[in-house]
Every structure is written in structure tokens, then in C-alpha cells.
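Example with several molecule types.
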Amino acid sequence: MKTMPAKPQFAWKSLPDPQDITRIQLPNGITLLTRTNFNSPSIVISGYLACGSLFDPPDKLGLAQFTAISLMRGTASRSFQEIYDALESAGANLGFGASVHNTSFGGRALAEDLPLLLKLLSESLRQPTFPKDQVERLRAQFLTGLAIRAQDTDEVSSLAFDAALFPNHPYGRPEDGYPETIRAIQVDDLAAFHHLHFGPHGMVIVVVGAISPELAVAEVQKALGDWQNPSQVESPALLPVGPPVQNFRQHIAIAGKSQTDLIIGTLGPHRHSPDFMPASLGNNILGQFGMMGRIGDVVRERAGLAYHASTSLNAWIAAGSWEVSAGVNPANLQRAIDLIRHELERFVKRPVYKHELKDSQANFIGRLPLSLESNNGVANALLNLERFQLGLDYYPRYPQTVLEVTPEQILLAAQKYIDPDRLIITSAGPEL
Amino acid sequence: MPNNITRKVLPNGLTVHLKEIHNAPIISHWVWYRVGSRNEKPGQTGISHWVEHMQFKGTPQFPPSLMDKAISRDGGFWNAMTSMDWTAYFETMPSDKIDLPMRLEADRMLNSTYDPEEVASERTVIISELEGDENEPMFRLSEAVQAEAFKQHSYHHETIGSKEDLHRIQRDDLYAHYRSAYNPQNAILAVAGDFDTNQMLARIEELYASIPGHPPELYTPPAEPPLGGERRLEVAGPGETVFLQLAYRSLNGSSPDFFAFTILDSLLTGPSGLSFMGGGGISNKTSRLYRALVECELAVSINGSLQATIDPYLYDITMTVHPRHTAEEILVTIDDEIKRLQDAPVPVEEIARASKQARALFAYGTENITNQAFWLGFAEIYAGYDWFLNYLDELEKITPQDVQRIAQTYLKPENRVIGIYRPTGEKEQQ
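Resulting C-alpha cells for the full complex:
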């Protein structure tokens, strides 16, 4: 029997590399990365500013997020409806959000509408007016969102997990705050946050799509090149986080639910750590590869306990988390915890098999072209290059970096971070 | 081969759609079966979705988990979905790795094992999936609205089925459903991406020629009579937030009025994307209902949904009610907005704007190859691929009178179910 002829592997030709990424820094401190793709008539912009929820005062958690989402509620040049009329009439979109370290933005449009998109971005970043009626409208929307969050077993479990893993640390606090902190935020707080923290220093913008690098640079320069904010405050470095000192178990009862959402985990490496790649491949083996790795195999495939059971490794700038999550029937909760704990014990006791590592290495390398297929995928990739200072040649180097990892390195990384006797275990669902 | 598309029906009845795209070294390969919850009789709700799960449990040639690992190893991704009208399986792979999933799909069209132990284990997995859904207030509301909107037709029940039926269905029921629905005559094979059409077609013929086709023996639902009057229902549950869903009985995907309805939906609740994945939509803050409800603080969010289906389904408008207002106040405002659409033709500019939005969304949606392959098959389920090819042209033809007529015909109170999720006020207990 014939098979489909294997074509030569063109994949690496399509990956971003120093030859096709243009990276420049504007005089005011904004870094721009751009890459051309004329296969689609659209463009994507994406980026961030160097301010986030790490600046939130404890009694006003959610301030960075509130500020970010208020930016498009009215500017010195346009009302809320005028902003969205311009955007939506062009079939374009633009939005803002905040995480611990950054205020981020993203948008897309047909290439002909890039100037419009950049103009709206610029107006929103530089001249927001925070109209009181709009702020109150948003506040009601946030409070409703928080009421819905309080009923979401996954989110509630996750909030409890973060709070326990990162006590007294910005990583342990919700970017969207709590009802009482959202109620405490005033228009003046938004304006002050904007005045002190929004500025070109540390800002990164990525433009990907049907536009030449020269034009992309010129358009960004035109929209944002003259932005200055002498009051902009530098982000402080975050304190390091220590591992859990003992087992922590918390269940949050939410009446009227059918399923319990469970999270078991601990600290993981930060993104710059040399442990990152071994931990990342180990995580793939533990709870992602195939049908959710070893955890999926044990909890879902063999025991039939859960529809989803998988792991995630979240690596940020100051620390990271390594989490196993599953949704289970309340009657099966303890059994799921026991099975997962057993898998973690196995994971820190013995190196992964060579064939498992080989599989995950092939997965990491092979999936790259798919993740970079669309303008959005490329924009995210360029943003990560800059955010974590990975270097413009990161993608051409990537296969080698992946292939150099050994089972022993994974074991060392697993042992460094995962202590099966010191885990954070949180769940939310029906009363136990 | 207009638009690089090749269409062919093999002697055993398999419909094949191929589209060469050479932008990236990727191929997306889909097999669609014309079976879904629409084809489930009472007592067997959820069986199509369960069959989809069992299709990952192996054949003699491809034991369970072997394929998961093989596809991950090759850097691809795969998944499957069951809807009301269809079940689809796809693999998106680096283009030099497509042969293995092609062999798998051909093999599991005929040779899946349905091991009784795997059936037992999957029963609890699917019940767990259902319990996850039941945690969501909007799932519970939508399930109740659907049941009220259809009393005869099997659009009555959710695709995942009822817990009672999920306990009742046995291995032989699943196998019989599989054998009836999974055969070339009831399938569409759609492939888009970086391949040579002649080579691809030859390989497909080689893989599928020996699989016999036969007319599927599937339950066909009776037509649903008109609703005959507005229906109202309430669902009680935990939380603090009120949700409101309006479901108007609508039309099927192949109806010539579908395009005018699409424009009406765009004006009323905002433009909807054409993306299965990776496209991304645009906001709806200048839509008529957003302005009337969210800007006036009666609701905190509003969404509309018009689905292309084989039989007439529902046009849904869902809202999260503002804490200071009531579902009843929202209904009055919605009726005023609908009356505006019924009483006078909308300005031509509004339609032109909706058309431009659709063009942009179309560009975003066709950016990735998985989405292109999705449309090659999906449109065939309820209309034909020409539906997708002509989509933008058809929207351009819509007139203000068309939109007015759709509002008058479909958006009548006697044609709708109103569902309200009322929280019982129970809060979390720390």
C-alpha cells in the first residue's frame, strides 16, 4: 500500500527568525516588532505596557484591570459610542486587559484600517477621560461578573489555590478584585493610576499581517512616537516566593452544583529559569501528551473519573505554578486526589521513560508550525520573544533546546518543585 | 477546479471535498457524518455524542491511546464534536504527517471495537461532562428553553443527552447506532491545505474504496408544528444573577431567508464570526440591543445566535440582567426594538455596514487552514459548499425590505419561548 508521499519539511522556513522580524526601539522607549504576511488581507496588533495589578492597593484590588477596561469608554476626542462606531463599522476590534505585570492590548482589522486601529489605540492609551456614567456602568458589569465568578467552581477553586500558593503576593490576588474592592475604586483612582503608570517606557507593540515593515514602523511612529509621560513610575521587582511548607487543603462549598473542580499543585519555575524547558517537557508527559498524559490516562481513561484531568505549567517573571486540575463527581473527589498524588509521587521518584521524552520532544517541535499559522499566533510568539527576552533567533534554536533535555534533568526539576507531602489542594463544589 | 476546490463522490457514496492551500506546511483533514442528536429517538438521547467518544477507544489495527500519542508525537492536534445535525472528526497536521490520521479515519469508519469495559468507563466520563455542564446556569436555562421550544422534534434535547438515558444506553445500542450512521454514503471527507489534489484523491480512493456504502437507517424526527403562542418558563438555581433567554423559532440553514436573517441578527445583537476556531469576532457595542439594553443599564451583556441547521431551529438572544433591573423590563425594551424593525425598513447604510463587518470576519476566519477545512464540510451538512462560497455575495444582496420581512415573519411573540434563570439567592459558604 502506498502512503501519501512525505513532502520535504518546509516548516522551519515559515518560522519567525531574525531575517524576517523587524525590531526597533522608538526614541520614547516603545519597542516595535513586526512581521509581514500577505496571505491574508488582515493585520493583528498586540502588545503591553509595563504596569499591571502589582500596583493595585490591597483595598482596591482590580484597579489596573478597571483602568484598562475603562480606556475605551471615552477619550478627549471621542465618546464611547464614537469609538466603537469607528471600530465596528470597519469590522475591526480592539481591547485592553491587565495581568500582574502588564496592561495588555490586542486588536485586528483589515490591513486598510491599520491607521484607524492605531489611532484608536493611541487615543485610548493617551487621552482617556473616564466618564463617570461609563465608569458606574462598568462597575455594575464587573460586580455581576464577580457574582458569576463566585458560582463558578473552577474559578473559585483556582482563586483559593492562588491565594494559598502565593500568600501576600500579587500572584496570589485576583486581577479582577473582589466586590468590596471594586466598590471602593473611584474615578480619581483610575485617572491617577493612568497618570502614574501609563507611558511609553517599557511598552511593546507587535504588528503582524498584510503590511510591509517600513509602513508598519511609520504608522506606529505616527500614532505613538510623540508619547511622553515624565511621571511614569517604574515597576518594582517582585519578591521571590517560597514553596509550601506543609500540605494545605481547602474545600469551598457551593450549593446546587453537580461537579467539583479540583486543583492540586505547587510552585513551578519562572520563565527565565534553566529548569523551565525540562519542567515544561516533564509537564507534557505528566498531564498533556496524547489524551492528557499520565494523569489523563489514570484519572480519565482508566478510572473514568473525570471528563477533564490535566496539568499546566505557568511560568511568569518572578515565579510560576505547576498545577493538576480535574472536574469530578463529588463522590469521587478523594479517589481522584489519591490517584493524582500517587502519580506525582511516581513522577518525582523515577525518571520519565526515554520513549516518553522522545514523544514529548517530537510534540514540542512538530506543533510549532501549527501554533504559528495565523497572524494571531505569530503576534503572540513575537510578544513572548520580547516579554521574556528570548532572542530573535529563539525559534530557529528551539528544536535543539528541546532535544537537549534529558530524563535526569526532568527528574531534577520535578524534585526541585514538587514535594508530594507539601501540596496545595483546593476544590469547589457541593458540600463534602 | 474553481477556487482550487475539487469535489467528487466515490462509487460507495463518499463525498470528497479538497482544497489546496499552500500558505503553510499544514493539512487539516475532516470526516463528517450526517448524524447527531437530531437522529436520536426518546430514550436514547446522547447516543451520538457517546458514539463519538467511543470512536477514540480503538480498532484492532489502532488500539486506544495509540492514536493520541501518534498525533501528538507528530505535532498535530485532533478532536471531534457532536452537534444536533452532525458528528465531525478532524486532524490538523504538518503536511508530511497526514497519512497516519487518514488511515485511522478510514479504519474507524468501519472497525471500531466498542469494548464493553471501555463503554462502562466512558459512561462515567460522559456523565462527568454532563455534570460539568450542569454547573453552569446558562446550560440549565438553555436546556429548559430548548425542551419547551420543541415537543415533537429531537432538537428538544441537548446533544449530551439526559442523565437517565446515559445510564440506560448499552454497548449494543451504541454499536448499532455506529454501524448505521458511519459509512461512506453518510459521510463527507473534507481536506484543506498543502497537498497535491491528484495524489490526495488517489490516496483517499485507495483507503475508502473497500468500505461499502449503504443508506443510513437513522431516526428522522417529525416536523415540529408551530409554537402556537408565546411560552414562558423559569429555572431556579444558585447564585445572585438573573439570566434571560429569548428563543424564536427560526429557519433552516438552506433557507433563502437565512442571509437576511443573518443581517437582522447583526443589526440587533452584533455581527457573528464565521470561525470554527482561530478567527475571533468583533464587539457588538453599537448593535441596537446593546445600545438599548446595556447602555441603558437594563442588562450587563447581550448576545445573539443564529445557527445553520438542517431543520428550522432557534434564533436565541441571551442576556445577563442588570442587578438593578428585571427580566420583565428588558422584555418591554426588546419588543420596542423589534417593533422598530417590523414597522419601517432599516437605513441602507446599516446593511452596508453589516456587510463590511461580515467581509472582515470572513477574512479573519479564513486565515487558518483548520477553519477552511471546517467550512468545506460543515456547509455541506445543511446546504452545500456553494453556500459558503456565495456567503458574502448573498449578504450584499439583502435589502431593507428583506430585513423588515424577516422581523415581521419570525420575531413575533407567538413564535418564541422566554426563559428566565432565577437565582435562589444562595451564596457560597466559606
